[in-house]
Design brief:
Elements (H helix, E strand, L loop, with lengths): L1 E3 L4 H6 L5 E6 L4 H16 L5 E6 L4 H6 L7 E6 L2 E7 L4 H9 L3
Parallel strand pairs: 1-3, 2-3
Antiparallel strand pairs: 2-4, 4-5
Length: 104
């Protein structure tokens, strides 16, 4: 997963020509730790078709606020540089996979 900050967010997520999944997380968040392996598994499955990124909300509070990541984890998907969907909290792996597939 690519680690994003305010410095590289536009280039790596918004201007990337393909679909992007961004996980907003906090280092102290147990639910984020539960979801990270789910994302890593999906990242392996869609390695060449979808970019997976992460943003630590305390490190990048402005980005977290901009994308409404007041609940962690928050997952923001982008297609063609535009927000496609937002999911918050623990998401069932099957549902998450279905939502990710919609990006393609």
């Amino acid at each position: 997963m690519i680690h994003l900050t305010a410095k590289n967010f536009a280039m790596e997520a918004k201007r990337y020509p393909g679909p992007v999944v961004v996980m907003f997380y906090a280092v102290w968040c147990g639910k984020c730790a539960m979801m990270k392996p789910v994302l890593e598994k999906l990242e392996q499955r869609y390695a060449e078709r979808i970019r997976f990124c992460e943003v630590e909300i305390e490190e990048s509070a402005v980005l977290a606020a901009e994308y409404g990541a007041d609940v962690v984890p928050t997952f923001v998907t982008f297609r063609d540089g535009e927000v496609y969907s937002i999911m918050q909290g623990v998401v069932d792996e099957k549902i998450f996979a279905e939502r990710i597939k919609e990006l393609l």
